[in-house]
């Protein structure tokens, strides 16, 4: 199928052609589409999220902090992105980018909203001085790998995952392009973990928590798998033995098991 881009892209012209899993929710503008009142519980942290890889990152840290006794708990609410709940007025007030997860710290006056999963991890780790190295060299390594994940995951989720699993129909060029980049990233990670127990030497940090829900779960066969597609097989993840070793180690943690199956309350 050939395609010649127009001189100026126009949403009104193409919106009827949008298809795939997210075709009906995406739009080229920001801001709220409807009024919304988000529920608030009694816990110090209010989480508005979904159990996607980006959402699970924050679930893990909250469960780890709870297990350590650093926080009493948190209230977790589901933002159903297929229903457009991320475009509600209260959620947009917390996160103007309309993406999950978003967090509100109720212990400050006024309450502190935090958006972007990496920012939430850094905020909580710094506030509670947990899972964040104090040694400057290790701290810098942790930041480097955290930023690597934040910058790389869109190629895996928005690129490979979208065209492999969610697009209206298979397209050879984008699938090949993003499969190649995803395998390159997996090789970067595999080579690093061949020399390190965790992302930062022998210290479990928020870098592991950020990377595991994407690359760890992918190599454990938990991402982009259905009756019709299987990303782990397609990408031959059995080649990445060091990632698998690391992922299986993390998957044994009770906190991570809870995080992956966290019950999120409906907002309405």
UniProtKB/TrEMBL annotation:
PROSITE patterns: GST_CTER (PS50405), GST_NTER (PS50404). Signal peptide: none annotated. Residues 132-268 form the GST C-terminal domain. GO terms for cellular component: protein-containing complex. InterPro entries: Arc1-like_N, Glutathione-S-Trfase_C-like, Glutathione-S-Trfase_C_sf, Glutathione_S-Trfase, Glutathione_S-Trfase_N, Thioredoxin-like_sf. Residues 42-132 form the GST N-terminal domain. It holds the Pfam family GST_N. It comes from the Bacteria. PANTHER family: GLUTATHIONE S-TRANSFERASE GSTA, GLUTATHIONE S-TRANSFERASE-RELATED. NCBIfam families: PRK11752.1. This is Glutathione-dependent disulfide-bond oxidoreductase. The lineage of its organism: Bacteria, Pseudomonadati, Pseudomonadota, Betaproteobacteria, Burkholderiales.
